[in-house]
Amino acid sequence: MIRPISVALLAALSLALTAPGAMAAANPTAAAAAVPVPPPPALDAASYILIDFDTGAVLAAKNPDQQRPMASLTKLMTAYIVFSALKDGRLTLDTPVNVSKAAWHTGGSRMFINPGTQIPVIDLLKGLIVDSGNDAAVALAQRVGGTRAGFVSLMNEYAARLGLRSTHYADVNGLPVPDHHTTARDLATLTAAIIRGFPQYYAIFKIKKFTWDNITQRNRVTLLWTDPSVDGLKTGYTKAAGYCLIASAQRHGMRLISVVLGAKSWNARLRDSEALLNYGYSFFRTEQVATARTPIAKPRVYDSAAGYAPVGTAATVYVTEPSGRDARFITSVQWSHWPLEAPLAAGAVVGTETVTDGAGQVVKRIPVVTLTPVPEGGLLTRMSDDVRLWFAH
After folding, report:
1. What does the pLDDT look like over 65-112, one tens digit per residue?
2. Rg (CA), the chain
């Protein structure tokens, strides 16, 4: 009788140590002073949005889903598709691009390329982004899409893939044409996709000036000179669109994206963008609460060869909160079922990590998954664990 009692006690102790209530851990950060959060700044722009890059949290907005002309902000999608072609190996930065007469004839802002010449993709990208060259946009579109119309079709296909539900492209550069529109929210989504998907090319957006054929042009995002935290992205203007500016900045490890559409002047779009960025950094914070594929617990898994298995989150997770709230974040794990039993595939959801702030409010729930496969153990292991489970119940 002594041995069964010992087994039962061992099973009970094992369950007690790994039961749902036992996997709570605090992740404290430095306490923050209680700072009230004022309303967002009142801006005259027709539409705007401010989002956190890591979480997608909207920190300020006005008419974010209002469809508007996009002017040269169109070139963000042109760049996105060229970046995709580079990433897929369909182009290289050194690939020569033939300049057609159609590209050369394009009006508006220009890189000043000449017909019949060949220009490397990297130089055309600089002309597209720094100079806002409509001619560079057409040259790249013809190279990647075969024709201008073919490239427009690609633009709309990629817009659908990215979830830009209120965006439709009718041209590659942003000169006024019918049925060519977007929203502040869609542009913020596209901007985040560029930064996240193509970090190796995003640096082009912070180039302050570019010289081609002895003509030097300055980047129209003049915040690059006045705010060292700003590292892109793009301006736009037509009479119908008004003055537009998308800016992204990074301060103290927190990246924000602001989109201003339909401002009344060149200076107004700069002031509005800076006001939005300052508001976000003054009154909000973003913290990382989980790291992708990093163990947060190693619970008992019955009938398994190893006995225990590392679990964590599939992706790195951030949360955005007002700065004035208690800065402590507390994480805890609740198992989706208990006890855990083998076999389990890698990536199997076994629970939920709940993140609460210092006031006890839930700010995030994240699936917890197995980080490695958990195969069954041998016959003796399974028999032994079955006995433990039988006595524990």
Report:
1. 999 999 999 999 999 999 999 999 999 999 999 999 999 999 999 999
2. 27
